[in-house]
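Q: What structure does this chain adopt?
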Amino acid sequence: TESLNIDIRRRVPEFSRINADGTPFQFSLSLGRDRPAPLQFLGEAGRPGCSMEERRNAGFASLGGLAQACGVIEEVERITPTLCHLAPERHPDLLADASGIFWFALTFWPNSAPSLTVYINGRWGAETARWQRLDDVAAFFDSTDRWRSLASLAPPGLSPLGIAFTLRPKRPASGRIYLQAFGKPLSVYRTLFLASATTPRASEAFEEFGRHVLRDDASYPTRSAVFSIELSATPMAGAKFELCAHCAFAHDAEAATRISGWLQQLGVDDEIYHSTVSSLSLGRRLSDSALPSLHAYVGVGARGSEQYASVYLNPGPALERA
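A:
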């Protein structure tokens, strides 16, 4: 809760990179056909203004509390040596990267124990060292061959962004590797998506996403975009492609119109999306005159035989006007 102890009207973008305006908290929606939508949110640890070393310590302290609350103490113990390797103590390159070290997300499914996801900054250090850390994560999940096959398809300019571990009580951990680029055509991400996703409708799902979300802009290079591959002990691993809302849409009203149309095409009930948007905007009409402030990212994912939508929403701007 330390990171939320701020004056909402005086957020510092340099402290938290979860949202572009510095709000250190984010809601996310994972919407699929014929399944309930979980409650999901993301935050980070550390008081505003603290050093990177203090943020690292606060992250590990928070992780201990979250592990106990979610019933994943043993699961956290198994990944802790890897976390220390990915975010080593007092490493000058890590401490020089002000974008953060750890972020934590909780997911609550109906009638299920919550899951905890730990995100780790992967952008720090020399480029070769960043890729080596991704190799190490793939090895942790016995997915070296799959990861190297995918990495061989990555064009120049696609670089490591981060790593995630998702933990559930008494279940093997799953992981995700994130890559980021700017100015790449959709075809680059389509190749990676189809190489990673196992669903037979992966190609159709990706094309529908581009057609509905980007519309005419789908033929031009994307701006800021993120591609991720899921690593797991099971064959259900998948992939996800996400676009920065500030780069993809002119304003929140346009984002809502396009996302709603895409969800309907995907066969997903968009009522939860609209009700969440209404709640986070305090029922106000969405802006059509400024860059998106509520919508942060939107993405299409595939896991096993499922295609799903991800929408990330920033509650900060509406609270500022409350």
